[in-house]
TrEMBL record:
UniProt domain DUF7876: residue ranges: 84-273
Protein name listed in UniProt: DUF7876 domain-containing protein
Pfam families registered for this protein in UniProt: DUF7876
Superkingdom, taxonomy of origin: Eukaryota
């Protein structure tokens, strides 16, 4: 098995998230929708304000003002949510609400169908959300607002697209989806510098989530980079959970969290040739 040696041991995750971030820039560099190709392309004088749920540009400034005005009215807000239910690929990253919908649909798709490709779809969407300056709590708020408004999210087809079937968001789904997203964000912070450029100085995860999961993710990152491993004994990670949270999750749940971290590392920092 190939062992990859990276200078410096990953004894702990980067607690100071600004090491993996840069300040916002105008004109900014927007990462393409496919994060597997680590490439940024200048797209002109756009300013990413994902965490504030809007994008600004001189070309559509007036229309953005109208949308913001409508969003303060209940009826118009419901109309806006419904209009964004079926999001075209070119609009998936146009606002934090669209990003939240895209993430949630991919989360639900993996939970219902399983499969490595579906998991990578969720991770890829999470990587883009990280790059665009989104935060876990900002996207949680978007999902909670949609849940409280009774918005129904369209179900994904097996190979992308939509089925026309819709279902409402459940509170438990929001919590689990955001936990997954936080783990993806923290895993990115545990990678060598730089991996994914983040166009915001705002920390991507809350302090609570960082404390809870940084050790878990760092142990897996150590195994991945320093020893070329793609799996760890579940018991090792359960012991980490006991030390941090005072309890350990079920082995199957811990295994699923571990798979999420390893898969994220494979997406943002592949170590072996693809077969």
């Amino acid at each position: 098995m190939l062992t990859v040696h990276i200078p410096g041991a990953f004894n702990c995750c980067q607690a100071h998230t600004d090491m993996n971030m840069v300040q916002e820039a105008t004109p900014c560099m927007l990462m393409h929708v496919n994060p597997l190709i680590h490439m940024a392309t200048s797209i002109g004088p756009l300013k990413v304000l994902c965490y504030k749920s809007n994008w600004s540009s001189s070309r559509n400034f007036n229309s953005q003002l109208k949308l913001q005005h409508f969003s303060h009215q209940i009826t118009s807000k419901r109309w806006l949510c419904r209009s964004q239910d079926s999001i075209s690929p070119e609009n998936e990253y146009r606002s934090s609400r669209n990003i939240a919908i895209s993430l949630f649909r991919r989360y639900r798709n993996f939970v219902e169908r399983g499969g490595g490709d579906n998991l990578k779809e969720f991770i890829s969407a999470g990587v883009n959300a990280y790059a665009l300056g989104c935060t876990d709590e900002g996207l949680r708020k978007e999902l909670i607002d949609m849940k409280d408004s009774g918005v129904e999210i369209e179900v994904m087809q097996a190979y992308g697209g939509s089925t026309g079937l819709k279902s409402k968001i459940i509170s438990g789904e929001v919590d689990e989806c955001i936990m997954w997203l936080s783990i993806v964000f923290i895993t990115i912070l545990c990678t060598p510098q730089p991996t994914i450029v983040r166009w915001s100085s705002i920390p991507p995860v809350s302090e609570e989530m960082l404390i809870q999961w940084k050790g878990f993710c760092a142990i897996i990152a150590n195994a991945y980079y320093m020893r070329g491993m793609a799996w760890l004994p579940v018991k090792t990670l359960q012991m980490e959970q006991m030390a941090v949270m005072g309890r350990a999750e079920e082995p199957s749940v811990v295994a699923s969290r571990m798979r999420l971290v390893f898969s994220t590392l494979e997406v943002v920092s592949p170590q072996w040739p693809r077969v």
